[in-house]
Specification:
Number of domains: 1
GO molecular function, one term: RNA binding
Distance between the termini: 14 Å
Helix content: under 10%
Number of helices: 1
Pfam families: LSM
GO cellular component, one term: SMN-Sm protein complex
Structural class: mainly beta
Protein name: Sm protein G
Number of strands: 5
Order of helices and strands: HEEEEE
CATH architecture: Roll
Radius of gyration: 12 Å
CATH topology: SH3 type barrels
Shape: globular
Strand content: over 45%
Family: Belongs to the snRNP Sm proteins family.
Strand order of the largest sheet: 4-3-2-1-5
């Protein structure tokens, strides 16, 4: 998983977190624990109808359920 994560750096990603939260942003970096650093991050609520600007955020890997890329280019 970590080897493939390097291809996602600089790409727009969506994180589905524990407690049914969703965060989108540009992946800036990660570590071996799958802790992620996002820039231009937003919390998405109400099925995408509401977006709350977060800016730069650090997400602990143990809080992440799903990671998906939103970039349309092939990774």
């Amino acid at each position: 998983m970590l080897n493939s994560m390097s291809r996602w750096v600089g790409k727009q990603v969506r994180l589905k977190l524990n407690a049914w939260r969703v965060v989108e942003g540009v992946l800036q970096g990660y570590d071996s624990y799958l802790n992620l650093l996002l820039v231009e991050a937003m919390e998405v609520k109400n099925e995408g109808n509401q977006r709350i600007n977060i800016g730069t955020c650090f997400v602990r890997g143990n809080n992440i359920s799903v990671i998906e890329t939103l970039d349309s280019t092939k990774i």
